[in-house]
């Protein structure tokens, strides 16, 4: 039998055994194991390396704190609120509190984050549109703290994760515009390192290809999932000699940027420009006009991630490591049939 972080031929080590191997006191090893910060970086690295190599076995069972650690790259807009609602719903049913961490627009936690998590000893960690480096994942695993990725940045591989059908969303948004007669359809993507952005772009390209419409590279705008990014790309697209008659923004924030660009340029939505977003955040039904968008079930995704996390914490097997929830096209008033299209 192989313990997490250990080898098949040897059982994981106790604090005393790790201290003997490292040539330090048991108190020093205990500080590293429990995320205390008052240990020299070289000593901490040595002890963490030994834990990764041999594993760690506590001398007595320590129950985790009744906490779920929820990690966001940024706490802005409706997106994190919808995620937090889904996590809180499941956590509340299991008498767990939720602790929020914000990475200040970084997608990998910085210095000191893992020590804080280890000192809190949460039931588990959910990382939203962010990830952990290999050392951070190892440190959680060796302490028995499960990790679930929600809306992962990249292909999660064997890591436990929850996402949405982003490719289908890109396909559905573009098909909707094609069905309305649009052929000059632009897209404002998210960052190219994001799995969701790449999948939505692939869905867009597939829909165009299936309709026999050549994808024009000039109509593909590289965004960053922000309102400002959507505004900048929309202004560039709408100033082209042959501008688009429709824009698919790969999230609702960028769609708000498209609205602002259209206003600045004197264009009316949907009379002069059709717009589709992605997410279906609560505010989109109150824009003028209300936004046609792809509904990504954020709260349901978060609830699924939390349920998976609790199963892992209880030692229950998962039927599969990846769950992908479906999307829906929500048609409102920001899209219209192209003039003179029959």
From TrEMBL:
Coiled coil: none annotated. It holds the Pfam family Peripla_BP_3. This is LacI family transcriptional regulator/LacI family transcriptional regulator, xylobiose transport system transcriptional regulator. PROSITE patterns: HTH_CROC1 (PS50943), HTH_LACI_2 (PS50932). Residues 13-63 form the HTH lacI-type domain. It comes from Nonomuraea solani. The keyword Chaperone does not apply. It comes from the Bacteria. Residues 13-43 form the HTH cro/C1-type domain. The lineage of its organism: Bacteria, Bacillati, Actinomycetota, Actinomycetes, Streptosporangiales.
């Amino acid at each position: 039998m192989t313990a997490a972080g250990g080898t098949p031929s040897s059982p994981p080590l106790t604090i005393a055994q790790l201290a003997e191997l490292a040539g330090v006191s048991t108190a020093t090893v205990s500080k590293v194991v429990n995320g205390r910060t008052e240990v020299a970086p070289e000593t901490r690295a040595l002890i963490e390396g030994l834990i990764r190599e041999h594993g760690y076995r506590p001398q007595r069972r320590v129950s985790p704190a009744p906490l779920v650690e929820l990690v966001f790259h940024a706490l802005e807009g409706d997106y994190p609120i919808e995620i937090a609602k889904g996590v809180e719903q499941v956590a509340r049913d299991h008498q767990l509190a939720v602790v929020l961490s914000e990475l200040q627009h970084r997608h990998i936690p910085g210095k000191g984050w893992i020590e804080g998590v280890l000192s809190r000893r949460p039931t588990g960690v959910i990382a939203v549109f962010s990830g952990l480096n290999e050392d951070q994942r190892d440190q959680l695993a060796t302490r028995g703290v499960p990790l679930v990725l929600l809306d992962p940045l990249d292909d999660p591989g064997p890591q436990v994760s929850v996402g949405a059908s982003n490719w289908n969303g890109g396909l559905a948004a573009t098909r909707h515009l094609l069905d309305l007669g649009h052929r000059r359809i632009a897209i404002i993507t998210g960052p190219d390192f994001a799995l969701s952005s790449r999948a939505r772009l692939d869905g867009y390209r597939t829909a165009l290809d299936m309709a026999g419409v050549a994808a024009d590279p000039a109509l593909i705008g590289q965004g960053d999932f922000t309102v400002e990014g959507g505004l900048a790309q929309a202004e560039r697209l709408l100033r082209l000699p042959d501008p688009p008659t429709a824009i698919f923004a790969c999230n609702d924030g960028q769609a708000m940027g498209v609205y602002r660009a259209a206003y600045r340029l004197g264009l009316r939505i949907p009379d002069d420009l059709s717009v589709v977003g992605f997410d279906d955040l609560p505010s989109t039904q109150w824009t003028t006009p209300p936004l046609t968008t792809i509904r990504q079930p954020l709260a349901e995704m978060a609830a699924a991630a939390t349920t998976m996390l609790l199963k892992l914490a209880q030692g229950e097997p998962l039927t599969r490591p990846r769950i992908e929830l479906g999307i829906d096209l929500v048609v409102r008033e920001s899209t219209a049939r192209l003039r003179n299209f029959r």
